[in-house]
Specification:
Blueprint (H helix, E strand, L loop, with lengths): L1 H20 L4 E2 L6 E5 L23 E3 L7 E6 L5 E9 L11 E7 L8 E7 L19 E2 L8 E6 L11 E3 L1 E8 L3 E4 L4 E2 L5 E6 L6 E7 L2 H6 L5 E5 L3 E4 L15 E9 L6 E2 L4 E4 L6 E4 L4 E4 L5 E4 L6 E7 L2 H6 L5 E2 L3 E2 L9 E10 L2 E3 L3 E6 L4 E4 L4 E4 L5 E4 L5 E7 L6 E7 L4 E2 L9 E9 L13 E5 L3 E4 L17 H4 E2 L10 E3 L19 E6 L4 E7 L13 E7 L9 E5 L3 E4 L12 E6 L12 E7 L9 E12 L4
Parallel strand pairs: 13-20, 22-29, 31-37
Antiparallel strand pairs: 1-11, 2-4, 3-10, 4-9, 5-8, 5-11, 6-7, 6-9, 12-14, 14-17, 15-16, 15-18, 18-19, 18-20, 21-23, 23-26, 24-25, 24-27, 27-28, 27-29, 30-32, 32-35, 33-34, 33-36, 36-37, 38-48, 39-42, 40-41, 41-48, 42-47, 43-46, 43-48, 44-45, 44-47
């Protein structure tokens, strides 16, 4: 009897363990998850916005007026972080059948909702592409599943094609579900990155789907917590919560204002040996000093009637504000009158002027001196290109900016912020400057001062901007192209720079650029904001696009030895040989005959010596598909190229 009972217990235990370690996938998205359209251009009706694609309601729908002409979809950050998605489902909207998506692409990212993203899976939505209409507001029946063992925090769902793009004006979907299993803890309290206004905390989380206990790590050093260093392991426990900041608990003397604390939960399965390492979360105890100023520190284009505000320091009772246009005066000021409100009205401000301010916090009996913040009022230069603080900038940049209220300007530039040199001057309408060849991997600073004799406040000193040049040579990162009409000032459409086969279709089957603006691709990108789309049709034997180089023609500078090309194909593409040609004649083929079928961004590194040409004077680069030496009839497809550059690669 007892042996039979024991056997039953063992069998039940085995079943339970198997069930727990093989948890059924569930929809990892839910209403309220952070979501944005792709492209995120608000080109949808107010009552058919992206959040309605994951609201668990098949009676609502998401419509985007882009899907018929270019891929569209959405990006979402599920509340269940680090989920492993292995399946999807879609429900039709069917206001118009031609809008139904018939294929999908799923991407994951652990960086941010904006990516960069890695392709997880792609395929057809079979039920939506049949001869008979799929029922309105109905989920597909043909299962969509795929292999995946990588957890992600953010997902991108794209629909490359709709049922009848010629008759459609949009893509429309009722509901999308991402089926996955969450093995790691998620939903931390306090929220990751939050301020926690107390000297103790009750940390809590939602357990992973297969967890039976939790290893807790906690400390004030990120690297130590991430590595599970000695002293950070709190213990293993069943309850999904832990108290800190009290005697007898971690940090018994209380949490310290201004300190950031890090914690991690590893989920343990029933076998006791399967461990799913969690991501490191953090929270911060507010400092004793004032923080989060508004306007933000070093802010620009602040309105002349602005009211200043801040978040009071931890336990602050009163605040003393010091304000002026001289840093030293504000930094050294003392004896001001305290106030109860965490706002300050400095009165009317002057155009294009830099102001400084400081807030001291009083928590009896101590006064905590604040940092000196600054901002510049509207009327100075804005939207600098390169952007403020930008990195990996070409060594031959063109600096541009939006003018303020001045009639003329002076531009100062240099590698030393304290001793900029006057480099250019002019009147409004010529807001650009080319500094010439710059050093690699160097930070440069620049400022634009403006003057207007009709204004008593003139002249105005502009804000200080900076950028850092790349430690590689940029051939084309696709960021400079725009949609300005041909012939108008500043026009730089991508298909004009990259000569394709549009005007010569009998011998060149390529077409560069999207059919409608934006002509450079702004959804499927590798780096930055744009890539180059190029369709190919090798019915004429080959397809290629050529960029004539006007700068960076010496491909031996600084010892560069490798040409890097990032490309992305599609599994539906025809397999055609991919090649790069220099100076119109020197050709190197991609070793992978299926390169055009690669669905994710792929890096192609080419030894420059393989071209066998004079690398000190490279006048053109050609990207192509087919047999350039002996063109033969082939297939068609769609390619994307980005971040073409010259690197120094170790042998």
């Amino acid at each position: 009897m007892y042996r039979k009972m024991s056997l039953i217990v063992v069998v039940v235990s085995i079943v339970l363990l198997s069930t727990m370690s093989m948890a059924a996938p569930v929809d990892i998205t839910q209403p309220g998850d952070a979501i944005q359209g792709v492209p995120n251009d608000s080109d949808w009706p107010a009552n058919e916005a992206p959040p309605l694609a994951i609201d668990d309601n098949t009676a609502t729908k998401y419509l985007h007026f882009k899907g018929f002409s270019q891929p569209t979809g959405f990006q979402v950050t599920p509340s269940k972080s680090q989920s492993i998605v292995t399946g999807m489902s879609f429900a039709t909207a069917n206001d118009a059948i031609e809008r139904d998506p018939i294929s999908f692409e799923l991407y994951g990212s652990n960086d941010s909702i904006d990516g960069p993203y890695t392709l997880i899976a792609s395929g057809d939505i079979v039920d939506f592409s049949q001869a008979t209409d799929w029922p309105r507001f109905t989920i597909n029946e043909t299962p969509i599943s795929f292999d995946n063992d990588t957890p992600y925090d953010h997902y991108q769902v794209l629909f490359p094609a709709v049922r009848d793009p010629g008759a459609a004006n949009s893509m429309q979907i009722s509901e999308v579900e991402l089926f996955g299993t969450n093995y790691t803890a998620y939903g931390p309290t306090p929220a990751d990155g939050a301020y926690h206004e107390d000297t103790w905390a009750s940390l809590a989380w939602t357990p992973g789907d297969t967890a039976v206990s939790h290893d807790v790590y906690l400390g004030d050093n990120y690297d130590d917590v991430d590595a599970g260093a000695e002293g950070t392991f709190v213990g293993n426990q069943v309850d999904p919560s832990v108290v800190i900041g009290f005697p007898g608990f971690p940090f018994p003397d209380g949490l310290v204002p201004g300190e950031t604390y890090y914690w991690r939960i590893d989920e343990i399965e029933a076998d006791g040996t399967t461990i799913h390492k969690g991501i490191v979360w953090s929270f911060m105890i507010p400092p004793k000093t004032a923080y989060l100023p508004d306007p933000a520190d070093t802010g620009e284009a602040v309105e002349l009637d602005a009211t200043l505000s801040w978040t009071p320091g931890f336990s602050a009772k009163l605040h003393t504000v010091y304000f002026g246009d001289n840093f030293d005066d504000v930094s050294n000021a003392a004896g001001g009158l305290p106030q109860g409100a965490a706002t300050f009205n400095p009165g009317p401000l002057e155009l294009a002027k830099t102001y400084y301010w400081r807030v001291d916090e009083f928590d009896p009996p101590a006064t905590h001196k604040g940092d000196v913040w600054s901002f510049i009022t509207q009327g100075a230069v804005g939207t600098p290109v390169p952007a403020k603080g930008a990195v990996d900038i070409t060594q031959t940049p063109a600096l541009t900016w939006t003018p303020g209220f001045g009639a003329s300007y002076e531009l100062y530039f240099g590698a030393d912020a304290s001793s900029l040199e006057l480099k250019a001057s002019g009147n409004l309408g010529s807001e650009s400057y080319e500094p010439g060849q710059l050093e690699w991997n160097t930070t440069y600073y620049w400022r634009v001062d403006e003057a207007n004799n009709a204004n008593a406040d003139s002249p105005w000193t502009g804000p200080l901007w900076s950028f850092t040049t790349a430690n590689f040579l940029i051939v084309d990162d696709m960021e400079s192209y725009n949609d300005i009409n041909e012939g108008e000032p500043g026009s730089n459409r991508i298909y004009l720079a990259w000569a394709d086969g549009f005007d010569n279709p009998a011998t060149n089957g390529s077409v560069v650029g999207n059919a409608a603006a934006p002509f450079a691709e702004q959804t499927i990108v590798h780096g930055g904001l744009q890539s180059m789309p190029m369709s190919y049709d090798n019915a004429v034997g080959k397809s290629e696009a050529t960029l004539t180089l006007t700068s960076n023609r010496d491909w031996t500078v600084n010892g560069v030895n490798t040409l890097t090309v990032w490309y992305r194909g599609d599994s539906a593409n025809a397999a055609e040989t991919m090649y790069v040609a220099l100076n119109g004649t020197a050709v190197v083929n991609n070793d992978n005959p299926l390169a055009a079928l690669m669905p994710g961004w792929t890096q192609w590194n080419i030894d420059l010596q393989a071209f066998g040409v004079n690398l000190t004077n490279v006048n053109s680069i050609t990207l192509g598909l087919g047999n350039r030496a002996n063109p033969v009839t082939g297939g068609s497809g769609m390619m994307y190229y980005d971040d073409i550059r010259l690197d120094i690669t170790a042998p």
